[in-house]
Design goal:
globular; Glutaredoxin; 214 residues; alpha+beta; Glutathione S-transferase Yfyf (Class Pi), Chain A, domain 2; four-stranded mixed β-sheet
Length: 214
């Protein structure tokens, strides 16, 4: 059983995508970051960086004590290794998956996150910062569009944790001032992932615990 400490952010959605695709049993423990629940002592024991998501695997593969993990990329890799799913088993395929997972963690996520902050949430509008992060997000979209020109999924022809890591950061493309029609390969991939039944189930958690306000 996986205990998932979660909120409905792009990083949170990564983990529900995997759990739904893999059919793993899991319990959701909402951590409402709007109410600063990420600073609760019990959560900090699992995620010392006070960020969601985090998991506790109560039945790790070695049969030992429960394992807790934070950082969404580390959690995806752990779950892929635990199940043998959504990561290639050969050396080259595995490295293809990992480099695009880390591309999201080190590039797309931070840049799109700053885009969200300066364009939607910052109390002061700073044109330089707004333009910088819109442009960098567009550059990264272009990298991904080129990557997807000759393959179905990011790491090749098989759906993987790289796709799961990247997709939630493309979902808010309008907030990022991006037009998917400008990136046809990316749009084709995005629509394909969006239509997967596991994606639909994963995103249903939003309506359950954090429905959009009127």
């Amino acid at each position: 059983m996986i205990d998932l400490h979660y909120w409905t952010t792009p990083n949170g959605h990564k983990i529900t995508l995997f759990l739904e695709e893999a059919g793993l049993a899991y319990n959701v423990h909402p951590v409402n970051i709007g109410k600063n629940e990420q600073f609760e002592p019990a959560f900090l024991k699992i995620s010392p960086n006070n960020r969601i998501p985090a998991i506790v695997d109560t039945a790790p593969a070695d049969g030992g004590a429960p394992i807790s993990l934070f950082e969404s990329g580390a959690i995806l890799l752990y779950l892929a290794e635990k199940t043998g799913l959504f990561i290639a088993q050969d050396l080259r395929g595995r490295e293809e998956t990992l480099q695009w997972l880390f591309w999201q963690m080190g590039g797309l996520g931070p840049m799109a996150g700053q885009n969200h902050h300066f364009n939607a949430f910052a109390p002061e509008k700073i044109p330089y910062a707004m333009k910088r992060y819109i442009d960098e997000t567009a550059r990264l979209y272009g990298v991904l569009d080129k990557r997807l020109a000759d393959r179905e999924f990011v790491a090749g022809n098989d759906y993987s944790i790289a796709d799961m890591a990247i997709y939630p950061w493309i979902v808010p493309y309008e907030r990022q001032s991006q037009d998917l029609n400008s990136f046809p390969n990316l749009k084709r991939w995005f629509d394909s992932v969006k239509a997967r039944p596991a994606t639909v189930r994963a995103y249903a958690w939003t309506d359950k615990i954090n429905p959009p306000k009127a």
